[in-house]
Amino acid sequence: MSKIPASVLAFEKKLVPSDGLMYGTTWENRQSQASPLKLQEKSVRGTISNRLKKSDEGKLDAKIESANLQTVDNCALTPEQDTLKLSFTLKVLSGVEVPSACNHEEFNKTYTNAVKSYIDNYKFVELANRYAVNLANGKFLWRNRVGCDEIEVEIKVLNKGNDQSWIFNSLDIDTHNFDNLSSEIIDLGGLIAKTLSGETNFLLLEINAYAKVGQSQDVFPSEELVLDKSNSKEKKSKILYHVDEVAAMHSQKIGNAIRSIDTWYPEYTQQQKTIAIDPYGAVTNLGKAYRQPQNKIDFFSLFDKFSQGEELDSVDDEHFVMAVLVRGGVFGEKQ
């Protein structure tokens, strides 16, 4: 088998979330009252708590005298509020069988035929149901999901002529298990599958998540990457994300949670947990890639076969390849 002949090959992502805006409310009035959450700046006097070099171990007292001054962003509910509301939209697009850029006509034909065969056989039902689970269980709340009495996710279809909606009790839905799906999740997954399969052009969803975290409690917007590494004491050491002064979560972070559906990698167990769809199964906070190229289980090894009409070892491999294509990216021989 030869490698893919297309030197230019790219796919647009088919799951397109917006940024998530954060509001404060009360659990009793969550449907009717919510006010935008603002970021607050704090200046704190910390202590030295990092590991010392061997040469500095005898100078600890001197270092403790030098306060660890920091200016950081913070976000919290008010004393009257006990519930976080996170609001965003998700657009699902069709057309995964057509690359956004491809410079090899013959490859384009074999690839399109392979995807059409997948759609005929599986209709994206497995992937769509998994995306629906991650919407229903509020996985996109990330740290805000921890330590909550109640979590509710309300999903509405915004397409013209479709008024379907669902309300999910998210704490009843496992974040790492895609079995035993409720009829509501299957209904939502069915709409996503129809769009990915090309039966409809697009699906637009509005998602409102409510997490009862407690009065005055901190909530956690996305944190901005600080590229300026200078040690100026006048600069903030933690910068949180906002949209027009409203605390927010990055669309990329929300998208990462929705596509955390990979249970097909070899090391998966209920303890190891689900990972986000990634060509190499990369989990940056663990510093590990679970799909190593030398084991021929990474996306590129599987895609080279799949795109040229060769049969993969398992259905799970096909699901993984298609999930990466839904994610999108640049996959040609020349990057």
What is the secondary structure topology, with strand pairs?
Layout: E1 9-11, E2 15-17, E3 20-25, E4 35-36, E5 40-46, H1 60-65, E6 68-74, E7 83-93, E8 101-102, H2 105-122, H3 125-136, E9 151-157, E10 165-169, H4 183-196, E11 202-212, E12 242-243, E13 246-249, H5 251-258, E14 282-283, E15 288-289, H6 299-306, H7 315-327, E16 329-330
Antiparallel strand pairs: 1-8, 1-16, 2-7, 3-4, 3-7, 3-13, 5-6, 7-11, 9-10, 9-11, 12-13, 14-15
Number of continuous helical runs: 7
Globular, elongated, flat, extended or rod-shaped: what is the shape?
Answer: globular
Taking all Cα atoms into account, the compactness measure Rg is 23 Å
Write the H/E string, N to C: EEEEEHEEEHHEEHEEEHEEHHE
Structural class: alpha+beta
**Helicity range:** 10-25%
Number of DSSP-assigned strands: 16
Distance between the termini: 21 Å
